[in-house]
Design a protein that fits this description.
The protein is mainly α. It is 80% helix and 0% strand. The chain has one domain: Ferritin, CATH 1.20.1260. The radius of gyration is 19 Å and the shape is elongated. The relative contact order is 0.13.
Length: 206
């Protein structure tokens, strides 16, 4: 009976994580649809101002994702302190914080605010994820949390690659480069994926 209850609790916690992630996704899709509708209504070709505004929206989207990710890894570095997972989450927390500062600096250079309705929704969703994500080794919730982080890091790599294609490129804060940021994202993904794969045998029965 105890094993059955534990299994139900694990599935419930995992379901909460997926539901919260789904809420973030649905909110993003709704806001994207509204943006596309406004673009269809507008006439004429995009001006340089329009393109800068689009870049600001794109940067804020990634800032929203980082808000949720930082809240999650911030909690998990404490709840998993002293474990391999805890060391990974602590490293990710510091790096995510640094990357978020870079994105905020880029927005400042564009003269754009980091605030948006989508970011507020993401911060609220992140608070939910922070409470439900994680779990112990062998629990599906921890495996899914690592998988969600891996997907988010791949999206972040896409951001750094997209910015590298801009000409002229946007100047970054001292000590940072887009190539180095992309390389960091690759290392983050490899570390997360390695940990996720190592947990698969303990999470799933053969």
């Amino acid at each position: 009976m105890k094993n059955l209850t534990t299994g139900i609790d694990q599935r419930h916690r995992s379901g909460n994580v997926v539901s919260a992630l789904g809420a973030v996704l649905m909110g993003s899709l709704a806001l994207t649809a509204m943006t596309r509708r406004r673009r269809r209504i507008a006439s004429g070709r995009a001006t340089p101002h329009d393109k800068r505004a689009a870049l600001a929206v794109y940067l804020r989207d990634h800032l929203s994702g980082s808000d949720a990710a930082i809240q999650v890894v911030g909690r998990l570095r404490r709840t998993h302190a002293g474990t391999d997972e805890g060391a990974l989450f602590a490293s990710l927390f510091d790096e995510f914080e640094g990357e978020r500062r870079v994105v905020r600096a880029l927005l400042a250079q564009l003269g754009a605010s980091p605030r948006s309705a989508k970011r507020l929704a993401s911060q609220a969703s992140g608070a939910i994820l922070k409470l439900t994500a994680g779990g112990d080794r062998g629990e599906l919730s921890l495996f899914r949390t690592l998988e969600a982080l891996a997907i988010g890091v791949q999206g972040k790599r896409c951001l750094w690659r997209a910015l590298q294609s801009l000409s002229p490129s946007i100047p970054l804060p001292a000590g940072w480069s887009l190539a180095a940021l992309e390389a960091m994202a690759v290392r983050q993904w490899e570390a997360i994926e390695s940990r996720r794969q190592s947990l698969a045998p303990a999470t799933f029965a053969n």
